[in-house]
Amino acid sequence: RAEGRALDPVTAAREELQRTDEAKLRPAPLVDGHDLIRLGVPKGSIYKEILQQLEEHQLEESITTREEALAFVRRLTGGA
């Protein structure tokens, strides 16, 4: 800071969040429920589980493309 004062941790975190790209915090899903239907995944609570896992992988950047996401679903469901 120009004044030479240290920021308290909460203020520092808030300012960092404001600088962080929203798309990075909450990226658009690479696949959705319609894709799971097309892949033959049986309807049910598994959809929520799969989509949550995909979101976690996106946030960790271990899955970054639609193709990787679809391959992940196929592996997870045994090819559905």
Secondary structure elements and pairings:
Blueprint: H1 9-19, H2 22-25, H3 33-38, H4 46-60, H5 66-76
Q: Largest sheet at a glance? A: none
Helix content: 55-70%
> What number of domains?
1
- How far from one another are the termini? 55 Å
Q: What is the general shape?
A: elongated
Task: Give the H and E element order.
Answer: HHHHH
Individual helix count:
5
The structural class is mainly alpha
Low-confidence stretches: none
**What oligomerization state is this entry in?**
single chain
In percent terms, what proportion of residues is strand? Answer: under 5%
Query: How big is the Rg?
Result: 18 Å
General description of the model:
The protein has one domain (9-76). It has helices at 9-19, 22-25, 33-38, 46-60, 66-76. 59% of the residues lie in helices and 0% in strands. With 80 residues, it is mostly helical. The longest helix has 15 residues, at 46-60. The protein contains 5 helices and no strands.
Short summary of the structure?
With 80 residues, the chain is mainly alpha-helical. It is built from five helices and no strands. The chain has one domain.
Q: What are the key terms here?
A:
mainly alpha; elongated; 0% strand; 5 helices
